[in-house]
Amino acid sequence: MLEFDIVPVTPFQQNCTVLWCQATKRAVIVDPGGDLERILAAVSRHQVEVEKIWLTHGHLDHAGGAGDLKARLGVPIEGPEEQDRFLIDGLAKQMAMYGLPAAKPFTPDRWLVEGDRVTIGNLSFAVLHCPGHTPGHIAYVNAEARLALVGDVLFQGSIGRTDFPRGDQAALIASIKGKLFPLGDDMAFIPGHGPMSTIAIERRSNPFVHD
Question: Which residues, other chains included, contact 190 with Cβ-Cβ below 8 Å and sequence gap of 6+?
Answer without folding.
Answer: 4, 6, 15, 17, 147, 148, 149, 150, 196
